[in-house]
């Protein structure tokens, strides 16, 4: 199908999302009784709190998008993905706090670190495949986690307490200019999403999908698959780094848990709940995870991770294509995932008769 | 298949040995020996987890990331049996009764065949039975009496019980109080739950044309479970007291057996219910085991609490007196010394001698199982090509379950054995899983001897790094002395893994294909 679509109709969904999220703080402000001008001047109460949650969701979504590109689209199962995020977060914090650099220089540094890291991961790429790649990336990321946590670096990283007291640039300080931060984070998310969509539709993106489906066949067709993987790695690394920068700028403390395997698993969970290789699933998943987390923390206190774990297992077993993926497969008839279980529990006939 | 020795692997091992020898120059033989023994000790615990991991990955192609959690559960179950035998005695009958219903599966299948209903209604009946069983469980199980520690009361917390047991004092514990319904009724309620559940599932999975027999031999398991459960319940208090006053050596052995058996059961259940449906989707298996690992960790946190505690050592390894530290092996047996003098250095008997011996024994036993028995032959064939084995008419699925349970059991053995020396904490599983993964990546993922070699290397490097942290490494051919800080210890094994994998993507002893 080669019909030419206009930009608007092509990215309808994400543009609607952008508009809704942009208006949301003002609408919430009206409900709590503060007029839009007050919200504009960051004087809202609940709307400001909600903006904060929104920022966290956007950061998670950017991170999950980059993981989806790497794992969902290209099929590289990396367990060290959080390293991109954490290195950028710490690099931003250290250069703002210890070195006292202005933000634009910090961003240049981040571009540098993200390229270096992507190349570091790429050295491994042609040599190891599948599970071994997973473990090498896990090893690299764990090494960074250990270095961050070590007591030798306490002056720079704050060891296990975390990096505190990072001076925030005044024009984007989340405690004063919360709305501006919110809009910036939202804008970055939307731009990343549109860029990723374009990337998937581009020839390079198509080859990436081919690599996931069958790497040897892609090779047979004459593509240098390693080069394509490196390109994907660079993009994913840079995107995750941007999320890391936003994380440091927003959070009061950069905790070392972001360098942990657990944070990669959070990314994986978001991608899985939203739908693997759907891109928009990452945004949906980030919303679900954050809201679930907030809700459960209120009700169950410490045992919230237990419920998150159960949700995770239920999704793996019963909704393997995630929310967006299942919708794309046609309503709630989730095809293979259910069928397998239905067969297992002997319900196949029951369903067939009903049709 | 003839194995070709790969030159690169040999060179790497040689380089490793040369490095150790050169770096060990500045060390007195006593330190060298103790550090090596400690390395062997850490290595054997890592090996117990890694061996199961490698067997499971080799045969089932499942990267079982829940292995660390199984290791942890093994340790915690062992602690419960050892420190709070009364809790263990309280919990056993209900678990036996919950199993008893499923032991009657042949009867349920027979009844499902005999009931005259059309298949669709049978399924609806089955599902409603399952729902009733769940509702019944929600009513009865919280009312089942269990005498347990309390997490928010320090005097009754696991830490206090550990400490008291370590001092040789048994705190008097109140027997479990009935909560609303008589204990025996609650127990038989458990049987009703499992019977309903099993019957419901039998109705749901019912297919026609099955051969049924109600031979008396099939009832054995059910009757044994029932009798055992009832007896334990009836003689609850004397049994608890008997276990409490028992010699701790025997209690420790009971703890090991119970924890291994329960985790073997858990592993088999996990494989049967959750991993088997996902054989067609490997990535999801990986994610599933990861999720199950997290759930297990949260459950352990909810039951045993966050703070760390230690499983006290049994009497045999606790002796301290005029005759200790022992100077000969005979002394260990006569005075039960906790340490022994070797080359003028004190070596802890349990940590540094018994653990490596057990590690090596298990290594040999599993090796014999793989090489000399029929099931071992099937496993080895399955690692090569499991589809072919299935084509030859062997029920590979059953072997899969066996191997998964075996791997889980080995992990639990490692957990309960390492608990007296390393302690119990919620993070213990994750830490060890990472070690085991590194060991396997170094040794080769599907290779059993590779698991042993990798674990040994990880253990030795960690312990030598700790030792060098105290005395400093004389860097070969220079006068510089380099002191690694504690942070570099885990990083050093990671670095070794990355280097090995870059040179040999399949590990030192992995298959080259």
Description:
- The complex is a heterodimer of chains A (355) and B (513).
- Chain A has 18 helices and two strands.
- By secondary structure, chain A is mainly alpha-helical.
- A two-stranded antiparallel sheet of chain A has the order 1-2.
- The longest helix of chain A is centred in the N-terminal third of the chain and has 28 residues, at 46-73.
- The two termini of chain A are 32 Å apart.
- In chain B, the strands form two sheets. In chain B, strands 1-2 form a two-stranded antiparallel sheet. Chain B has a two-stranded antiparallel sheet with strand order 3-4.
- In chain B, helix 2 crosses helix 17.
- In chain B, 47% of the residues are buried.
- At the A-B interface, helix 7, helix 13, helix 15, helix 17 and helix 18 of A face helix 6, helix 12, helix 17 and helix 19 of B.
Largest protein interface, residues of each chain? A-B, 47 and 48 residues
Main structural class of chain A = mainly alpha
Largest sheet of chain B: 2 strands, antiparallel
Helix-strand pattern of chain A: HHHHHHHHEHHHHEHHHHHH
Q: How big a fraction of the residues of chain A is strand?
A: under 5%
| Number of helical regions of chain A | 18
What integer is the average pLDDT of chain A? 81
Number of DSSP helical runs of chain B:
19
Helix content of chain B: 55-70%
The oligomeric state is: heterodimer
Radius of gyration of chain A over alpha carbons? Answer: 21 Å
CATH architectural label of the largest domain in chain A:
Orthogonal Bundle
Give the class-level CATH name of the largest domain in chain A: Mainly Alpha
- Backbone structural class of chain B: mainly alpha
Main β-sheet of chain A: number of strands, strand sense, barrel status?
Answer: 2 strands, antiparallel
- First and last CA, distance of chain A: 32 Å
- As laid out across the biggest beta sheet of chain A, the strand order is 1-2
């Amino acid at each position: 199908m080669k019909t030419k679509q206009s930009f608007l109709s092509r990215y309808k969904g994400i543009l609607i999302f952008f508009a809704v999220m942009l208006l949301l703080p003002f609408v919430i402000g009206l409900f709590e009784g503060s007029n839009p001008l007050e919200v504009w001047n960051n004087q809202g109460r609940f709307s400001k709190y909600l903006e904060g949650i929104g920022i966290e969701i956007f950061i998670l979504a950017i991170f999950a998008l980059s993981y989806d590109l790497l794992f969902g689209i290209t099929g590289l199962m990396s367990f060290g993905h959080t390293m991109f995020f954490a290195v950028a977060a710490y690099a931003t914090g250290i250069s703002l706090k210890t070195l006292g650099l202005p933000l634009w220089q910090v961003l240049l540094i981040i571009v540098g670190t993200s390229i270096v890291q992507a190349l570091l991961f790429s050295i491994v790429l042609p040599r190891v495949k599948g599970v071994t790649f997973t473990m090498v990336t896990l090893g690299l990321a764990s090494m960074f986690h250990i270095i961050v946590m070590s007591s030798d670096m306490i002056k720079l990283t704050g060891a296990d307490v975390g990096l505190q007291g990072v001076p925030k640039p005044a024009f984007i300080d989340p405690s004063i200019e919360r709305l501006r931060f919110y809009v910036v984070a939202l804008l970055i998310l939307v731009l990343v999403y549109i860029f990723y969509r374009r990337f998937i539709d581009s020839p390079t993106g198509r080859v990436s999908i081919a690599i996931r489906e069958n790497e040897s066949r892609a090779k047979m067709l004459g593509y240098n698959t390693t080069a394509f993987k490196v390109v994907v790695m660079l993009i994913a690394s840079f995107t995750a780094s941007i999320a890391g920068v936003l994380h440091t700028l927003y959070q009061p403390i950069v905790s070392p848990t972001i360098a942990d395997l657990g944070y990669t698993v959070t990314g994986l969970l978001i991608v899985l709940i939203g739908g693997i290789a759907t891109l928009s699933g990452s945004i949906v998943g980030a919303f679900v995870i954050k809201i679930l987390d907030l809700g459960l923390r209120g009700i169950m206190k410490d045992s919230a991770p237990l419920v998150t774990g159960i949700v995770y297992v239920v999704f793996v077993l019963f909704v393997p294509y995630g929310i967006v993926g299942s919708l794309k497969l046609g309503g709630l008839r989730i095809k293979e995932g259910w069928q397998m279980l239905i067969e297992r529990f002997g319900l196949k006939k029951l369903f067939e008769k009903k049709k | 298949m003839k194995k070709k020795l790969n030159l690169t692997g040999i060179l790497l091992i040689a380089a490793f040995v040369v490095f150790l020898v050169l770096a060990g120059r500045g060390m007195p033989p006593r330190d060298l020996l103790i550090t090596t023994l400690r390395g062997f000790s850490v290595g054997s615990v890592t090996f117990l987890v890694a061996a199961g991991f490698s067997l499971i990955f080799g045969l089932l192609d499942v990267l079982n990331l829940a292995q660390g959690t199984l290791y942890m559960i093994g340790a915690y179950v062992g602690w419960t049996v050892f420190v709070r035998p009364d809790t263990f005695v309280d919990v056993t009958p209900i678990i036996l009764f919950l199993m008893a219903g499923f032991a009657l599966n042949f009867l349920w299948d027979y009844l499902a065949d005999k009931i005259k209903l059309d298949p669709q209604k049978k399924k609806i009946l089955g599902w409603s039975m399952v729902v009733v069983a769940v509702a019944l469980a929600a009513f009865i199980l919280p009312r089942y009496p269990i005498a347990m520690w309390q997490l928010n009361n320090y005097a009754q917390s696991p830490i206090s019980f550990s400490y008291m047991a370590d001092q040789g004092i048994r705190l008097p514990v109140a027997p479990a109080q009935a909560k609303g319904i008589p204990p025996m009724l609650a127990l038989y309620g458990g049987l009703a739950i499992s019977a309903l559940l099993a019957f419901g599932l039998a109705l749901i999975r019912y297919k026609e044309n099955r051969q049924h027999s109600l031979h008396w031999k099939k009832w054995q398991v059910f009757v044994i479970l029932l009798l055992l459960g009832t007896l334990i319940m009836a003689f609850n208090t004397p049994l608890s007291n008997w276990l409490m006053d028992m010699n701790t050596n025997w209690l420790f052995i009971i703890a090991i057996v119970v924890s291994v058996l329960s985790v073997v059961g858990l592993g088999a259940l996990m494989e049967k219910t959750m991993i088997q449906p996902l054989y067609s989707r490997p990535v999801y298996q990986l994610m599933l085991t990861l999720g199950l690992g997290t759930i297990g960790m949260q459950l352990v946190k909810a039951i045993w609490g966050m703070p760390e505690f230690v499983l006290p050592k049994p009497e045999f390894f606790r002796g301290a007196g005029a005759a200790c530290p022992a100077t000969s092996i005979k002394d260990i047996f006569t005075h039960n010394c906790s340490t022994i003098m070797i080359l003028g250095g004190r070596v802890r008997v349990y940590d540094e001698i018994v653990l490596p011996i057990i590690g090596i024994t298990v290594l040999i036993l599993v090796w014999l199982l793989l090489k000399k028995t029929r099931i071992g032959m099937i496993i080895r064939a399955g690692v090569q090509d499991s589809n072919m084995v299935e084509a030859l008419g062997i029920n590979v699925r059953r072997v899969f379950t066996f191997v998964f349970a075996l791997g889980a059991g080995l992990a639990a053995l490692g957990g309960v054995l390492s608990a007296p020396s390393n302690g119990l904490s919620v993070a213990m599983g994750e830490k060890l899983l990472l070690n085991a993964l590194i060991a396997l990546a170094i040794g080769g993922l599907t290779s059993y001897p590779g698991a042993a070699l990798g674990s040994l290397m990880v253990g030795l490097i960690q312990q030598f790094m700790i030792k060098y942290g105290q005395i400093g490494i004389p860097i070969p051919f220079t006068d510089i002395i380099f002191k690694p800080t504690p942070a570099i210890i885990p990083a050093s094994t990671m670095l070794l893994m990355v280097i090995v994998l870059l040179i040999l993507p399949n590990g030192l002893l992995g298959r080259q294909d």
